[in-house]
Amino acid sequence: MKLKHILLGAAAAFAMAPAAMAGRGDDGHVNIIYWQAPSMMNPYLSGGTKELEAASLVIEPLARYDQDGNMVPWLAESVPTVENGGVSADLKSITWKLKSGLKWSDGSPVTSEDVKFSWEYCTAEGGGCSQSEKYNNVASVETPDELTVIVHFDVAKPFPYGPFVGAQAPIIQKAQFANCMGPKAPECSEQNFAPIGTGPFVVTEFRPNDVISLKANDNYRDPNKPAFATVTFKGGGDATAAGRAVLETGEFDYAWNLQLAPDVLANMSAKGKGTVVSSFGTLVERIMINLTDPDPKWGDERATRKHPHPFLTDKAVRQALSMAIDRELLVEIGYGAAGRPTCNVLPAPEIYKSTANDGCLVQDIEGAKALLDNAGWKVGADGIRAKDGVRLSILYQTSTNAVRQDFQALIKEWWKQIGVETELRNIDASVFFGSDPGSPDTFQKFFADVEMYANNFDGTDPESYMAYWECKQAPSPENQWQGNNMPRYCSEDYDKLVAEMATTGDLNERARLAKAMNDMLMQDYIILPLVDRGRVSAHANSLGGVVLNTWDSELWNAADWFRIK
Fold first, then answer.
1. CA distances from 409 to 390, 398, 405, 423 (A)
2. Are 320 and 385 in contact (CB under 8 A)?
3. What pLDDT is attached to residue 290?
4. What is the pTM of this model?
5. Which of 74, 212, 364, 497 could staple 233 via S-S, CB 3.0–4.6 A?
6. E strand residue ranges, 335-445
7. DSSP assignment string, 521-538
8. Closest CA to 435 of 121, 101, 36
9. Which of 444, 41, 405 is nearest to 259 (CA)?
10. Could you please report the per-residue DSSP string of 478-528?
């Protein structure tokens, strides 16, 4: 059975929702299951998708992206442009106007000061903000009146929509978070677990890495929404159990990220209780290379730039690891029609897709062996290569998931064939993608040699996404292990490309720069992309209004969901 694709009918479903809903809370209860459980509701302190999406039920941005990747106003009256006067002619400022009458869930008014504070919070000294790249080049934020926000940039900014746009850069309430700035941010459990928001729902109970209970926001701006009075957001378990809960037993209404083998998903779908929804966006399953030494002997300096990795700093080793991988086979066993092999960390939109790295699509075991031979890595009596007393022995970590463990097993065998020893480790997804700066097991800490996961970005413009790998984005003790530069990569030339893209307006030139950054990372084998993954989720046949969105939070339009009677 092929995965069903709903994008063609998305507009119709979206349009039906308001008419089908009689009033706020009239449709009772809805159950959502994310097998990766959220550890908090503050996306500024976690780069995990599970936190971003759970939080999107409660806190919102000024604008976001719809199912077609179009930017649409959300808390703002309209999207500012040069044409409508919202973006200055010199491209150094953007003026947002809040919708009038907006209220926080506690009944207090939403003002421009809350918007300004959200920037101040993310950029506070001594803090660690996992979304700081969204605020690159922001020099100041001005609030001339309660509904007007003017963002000033220190350069001409042709794409000024990083700050306050998309699920990754929402508005938080100043009154609630005022005492949670900088180093205090992770300590504010009450605020981080139950933010006061503008979204359709309010947290009533938060159990980290387990269950979130929510109710309809009495102060939501549409008096007839949301249709559901209460929500149970269940976390944990695995993708198989989540899929069954919607597609076989009907216990849940929506299941996210069904990272399952194609035949398993098809058998579940055949039960007829739910619908699988799938679409491609920018989600790439990849292996990240640690350029720093994760050896515990370094103590607090472990996995920081103070100690380079003993062998992964050798490009020949990184390249050989990539050459040994059969990406076509990974797609076949792991995703079927919901995946395609890729050699890029930036696979879409099409204008940004590079063809310069397509050689990785062909597995080359013998070529990898020759490359290591020429680099001086000799095979020992145990079959493992070594050089100057350093053995090619890798700790390979990822989250616990059947598909990922299948990938690990295959890749371990391929690496063995080229003389690399591999120890496999899998960590519960709620912990791996968690945000606890004290945990040794997060993907930000990266206390392993390589790690595998998937990531993507809001919207269709990759400027902020490609800034992930700026030098300053590396997680470290100094920023409470926040940031998206997991390999701890640092290149002055790369940073220059990031800065150049920030000031480039021509679309073709932006595409050239984005491809150049992608190619720099790929051809230096800092990231080993594996699969361009389609988003795959499922909803009960009785749940209406669902519009799968690969460009923003999947829960972006939960206010429009309703029960089909």
1. 24, 12, 6, 10
2. no
3. 98
4. 0.86
5. 212
6. 339-341, 378-379, 385-387, 390-391, 393-399, 421-427
7. HHHTTSEEEEEEEEEEEE
8. 36
9. 405
10. GGTT--S-TT----HHHHHHHHHHHT---HHHHHHHHHHHHHHHHHTTSEE
pLDDT at 527: 98
Rg (CA), the chain: 23
Report the run of H or E that residue 565 belongs to, with start and end: none
Please give the structure tokens belonging to residue 45: 């302190």
In angstroms, the CA 256 to CA 251 distance is 14
**Cα separations in angstroms, 412 against 80, 264, 409:** 50, 24, 5
Dist. CA 505–CA 507, nearest whole Å: 6
- Four-way CATH pick for 280-348+357-457+525-533: 3.30.70.100, 3.10.105.10, 1.40.20.10, 3.50.50.60: 3.10.105.10
DSSP tag of 165 = B
Beta bridge partners of 109: 103
Domain spans of the chain, in order of start: 280-348+357-457+525-533
Between CA 398 and CA 404 the distance in angstroms is 7
Instruction: Check residue 11 and give its pLDDT.
Output: 31
What is the Cα–Cα distance from 542 to 558, expressed in whole angstroms? 15
Residue with tokens 């292996």, as numbered in its chain: 287
**Phi, psi for residue 392 in degrees, rounded to 5:** -85, 80
Interhelix angle 492-502/507-523, rounded to 10 degrees, is: 160
- Residues of the chain short of pLDDT 70, as ranges, are 1-22
> How confident is the model at residue 18, as a pLDDT?
42
Residue 124 CB neighbours (<10 A): 16
Task: Classify each residue of 5-39 as buried b or exposed e, where b means 16 or more C-beta atoms within 10 Å of its C-beta.
Answer: bbbeebeebbebbeebbeebbebeebbbbbbbbbb
As a three-state string, the secondary structure of 424-456 is: EEEECHHHHCCCCCCCCCCCCCCCCCEEEEEEC
Report the pLDDT value the prediction gives residue 45, as an integer from 0 to 100: 94
Cα 542 to Cα 27, 117, 555: the distances in Å are 11, 40, 17
> How high is the pLDDT of residue 9?
29
What would the two tokens of residue 433 be?
Answer: 């993608």
At 320-341, the pLDDT tens digits run: 999 999 999 999 999 998 999 9
Q: Look up residue 430 and give its two tokens.
A: 């709620």
Cα angle 216, 174, 485 (rounded to 5 degrees) comes to 95
User: In this structure, which amino acid lies at residue 361?
Assistant: L
Q: What is the pLDDT of residue 22?
A: 67
Count CA atoms closer than 13 A to 30's CA, side-chain side: 32
Say which residue the tokens 């669902």 belong to: 546
User: According to the model, what pLDDT value does residue 47 have?
Assistant: 77
